[in-house]
Amino acid sequence: MRRKHWMVLLVLGLFILACKKDNPIKEEIEKFLGFVKPSNFPEPVYNLANNPVTKEGFELGRSLFYEPRLSRNNTISCGSCHIQSAAFTQHGHDVSHGIDDRLGTRNSPPIMNLAWNKAFMWGGGVFDLDLQPIVPITTHEEMDESLENVLAKLRLLPKYTSLFKNAFGTEEINTARFMKALSQFMIMCISSSSKYDQVMRKENGAVFTADEQEGYVLFKDKCASCHSEPLFTDGSFRNNGLGISPINDQGLYTATLQETDKYKFKVPSLRNLQFTAPYMHDGRFLTLAGVLEHYNAEVQHTPNLDPVLNVSGKLGIGLTEAQKTKLTAFLATLNDPAFINNALLAEQ
């Protein structure tokens, strides 16, 4: 009997230990600290005073982000086109895939460091993160749903009446609360643990290799005017000399109707390039080597071409093969495995 007693205790102990190990998200939530600005980042532009991140608001936003009922036929969630393992892009897809396998016209941009963004989407048109989800929810090629229907569906689910009450004090489910909760999740998608970040913050003894350091010098000379540190985008819209696409996507012009904005697209961040292929607004380049070759030798002259790519009549940035190798080595230091494996951001 005594032997059986100890066996039961041993099995019970192992079971409890296994349960603890199998629930990393719960453990992370218990350590939830809210929004914390990385020390090497500037102040965020998102107004956190109007929507402070709470544990309950974040949990609601995360559930909404992965909720397929946001789409008309209840099959597509935000997380369908913004996949964490791909730095919240749709890796391998040149353009986004919506309900009924409809194809969009642009590549799914990453969801990261959005608290430092003033404008959203490749072609602009939205300047408030709290409003941005309206576009994919209502776009025919994406979720093809109305916000009214989304809220009606959520109100039928006890799970959401409970989550909204936890986050906002009452069970009321309305547009403002819905948007604020999604924003709370998205602004917590912070990528700031790359080797580059560790070097800049002098953490863990991190230092660049010789090739990475030379690549960093090249980057600051050839790329930083558009892809400024530490976010690796200046958030602007520029014409980078791409050939006109078959659908003649005119970029920012579609939002402003200003001739000077034709074929301008938002400058993307260079963080996490290892996980976010294909590249450009329409996913036309499958590899980083293809992107560098474009900027090196394939920039096309157009009336709106950005001046940094047309210096004294010379198009492109002019890199040797050796320089491409070193620049690529530096860009690899911007990859952030901790971000794509952060259990706090994963679907439950």
Describe the fold and architecture.
The structure is a single chain. The protein is mainly α. It is globular and about 60 Å long. Mean pLDDT is 93; it is low at 1-21. A hairpin with a 2-residue loop joins β3 (310-311) and β4 (314-315). It folds into 2 domains: 55-191 and 339-345, Orthogonal Bundle (Cytochrome Bc1 Complex, Chain D, domain 2); 195-336, Cytochrome c-like domain (Cytochrome Bc1 Complex, Chain D, domain 2). The chain has helices at residues 2-21, 24-30, 55-65, 78-81, 134-138, 147-155, 158-168, 175-187, 195-200, 210-222, 253-256, 288-298, 321-332, 337-340; strands spanning 237-238, 265-266, 310-311, 314-315. A two-stranded antiparallel ribbon has the order 1-2. A two-stranded antiparallel ribbon has the order 3-4. The protein starts with a helix and ends in an 8-residue tail after the last helix. It contains 14 helices and 4 strands.
Beta strand count: 4
Structural class: mainly alpha
What's the CATH superfamily of the largest domain, by name? Answer: Cytochrome c-like domain
Query: In terms of per-residue confidence, which ranges show pLDDT below 50 for 5 or more consecutive residues?
Result: 1-21
CATH architecture of the largest domain: Orthogonal Bundle
Mean pLDDT across all amino acids: 93
Spatial order of the strands forming the largest sheet: 1-2
User: What is the fold-level CATH name, i.e. the topology of the largest domain?
Assistant: Cytochrome Bc1 Complex, Chain D, domain 2
Looking at the structure, what is the overall shape? Answer: globular
Give the % helix: 25-40%
Distance between the termini: 41 Å
